[in-house]
Design a protein that fits this description.
Blueprint lengths: L8 H5 L13 E3 L14 E2 L2 E2 L9 E3 L2 E4 L18 E4 L4 E7 L5 E9 L7 E6 L2 E6 L10 E8 L4 E8 L11 E10 L29 E3 L14 E3 L5 E5 L10 E4 L7 E7 L5 E10 L5 E10 L2 E10 L3 E10 L4 E8 L3 E2 L5 E2 L2 E11 L9
Antiparallel strand pairs: 1-13, 2-3, 4-7, 5-6, 6-13, 7-12, 8-11, 8-13, 9-10, 9-12, 14-16, 15-18, 16-17, 17-26, 18-23, 19-22, 19-26, 20-21, 20-23, 24-25
């Protein structure tokens, strides 16, 4: 059984104020995104929410429970963080909220969730017509709680965000718990003169709750074609990369970085225009996030026909080293790929891996022109 989260500061995060049901997106919690505003008693039967609009700012369907701070269910494998409220999505349960957005703009949704009783729990996150089914079976924290992200492109000025439990269990209440939902506007990054890669410093990415020390999981492209990490795609069946921040982790440069937590089961990649026959230099930093990931951390980089394996001996206290891969392009598009060589575990048996940051790609030289034979 997972322990209750020791970070009492999360309680402060989950304190909210009333807001209209429809609002203009900026950044942060959705209205009642922390479920601090409890349902009216007339829309409740015990902990089961019976009224479709009983939870302020949300609409529900299916078997939904409202769990107040301090309440414990006998069948739950973990308890809520101190001071947090939650909704529990049982059989075929959905919570949804109508939000105002800017048409053709990209957004990322971040929510904190945990499985409560079943092993293979998953959540379908959608903004019509786009959706992604995010498995929450693999737990990346010792508390049992993880932050998940998912991105979408707004097709209208008003959209409905839905989070749906697709499972049906013998116990109708069995399903994932959610304690916070937030949103963030994403701005498509551009290539610069000094870097042919977009968002190579990873400074743009999904919303990170200020008082959650575990980062945000970014899903594979199979579940999210837009990616909450602009410019980059995650290639995997079910595994993810973790987006981490400087306030809670050591990052090689700036405020954000990526931790490769899934070994060879997951790859981070970006395709970039190149000129066949030209030479290029790919530089990047490899380190550890000061999160207790100890051992030989290795990142493998691939571009065209070249590859490089970079090892960083980690004490789990932070630090990084630079690396360079030079290659000659063989096509008009080159795929730049990074992955961790191994599966690594911290002392609490949770997955961890090397941190990747400050990725740059520059052209070095073009081939010498051929001399005409007379």
């Amino acid at each position: 059984m997972a322990n209750s989260m020791p970070c009492v500061a999360l309680f402060l995060l989950l304190v909210g104020v009333a807001a209209p049901a429809v609002f203009a997106v900026t950044e942060g919690l959705l209205p009642n995104g922390n479920f601090a505003q409890r349902p009216d008693k007339s829309g409740m039967k015990g902990v089961v929410v019976t009224g479709r609009n009983a939870i302020p700012s949300w609409e529900i369907s299916g078997f939904v429970e409202y769990i107040e701070p301090g309440h414990k269910e006998e069948d739950m494998i973990l308890t809520l963080p101190e001071g947090a409220s939650a909704v529990r999505l049982g059989n075929d349960a959905t919570i949804r909220q109508l939000i105002n957005v800017t048409r053709k703009t990209y957004y990322s949704v971040t929510f904190v969730a945990a499985r409560s009783c079943a092993q293979a729990e998953k959540l379908n996150v959608s903004v019509d017509p786009e959706f992604g089914v995010l498995p929450i079976q693999t737990v990346y924290t010792s508390t049992g709680w993880d932050s998940y992200s998912w991105a979408f492109k707004a097709r209208h000025t008003t959209v409905t965000l839905s989070i749906h439990n697709t499972g049906v269990e013998e116990d109708p209440a069995c399903g994932p718990l959610i304690i916070a939902v937030a949103i963030k506007t994403l701005y498509p990054p551009y290539r610069t003169k000094g870097n042919m890669l977009r968002n190579g410093d990873f400074e743009q990415g999904p919303y990170i709750f200020p008082d959650t020390p575990w980062g945000v999981l970014v899903p594979p492209i199979l579940e999210d074609v837009h990616s909450p990490l602009p410019g980059w795609n995650i290639m995997s069946d079910t595994k993810v990369v973790k987006y981490v921040d400087a306030p809670h982790h050591k990052v090689p440069r700036g405020e954000r970085a990526v931790e490769l937590v899934a070994g060879r089961e997951c790859a981070l990649l970006q395709e970039v225009p190149t000129v066949a026959g030209w030479s290029y230099r790919l530089s990047f930093s490899v380190g550890d996030a000061a999160n207790g990931c100890v051992g030989s951390l290795a990142v493998e980089a691939y571009a065209a026909r070249e590859s490089l394996k970079v090892r960083y001996e980690s004490l789990g206290t932070g630090g990084s080293k630079p690396a360079v891969l030079e290659f000659t392009a063989i096509a008009n598009t080159t795929r730049v790929v990074f992955q961790s060589s191994d599966h690594l575990l911290k002392s609490d048996a949770t997955l961890c891996g090397p941190v990747l940051d400050d990725v740059k790609l520059v052209g070095v030289r073009k081939p010498a022109p051929r001399r005409l034979r007379l």
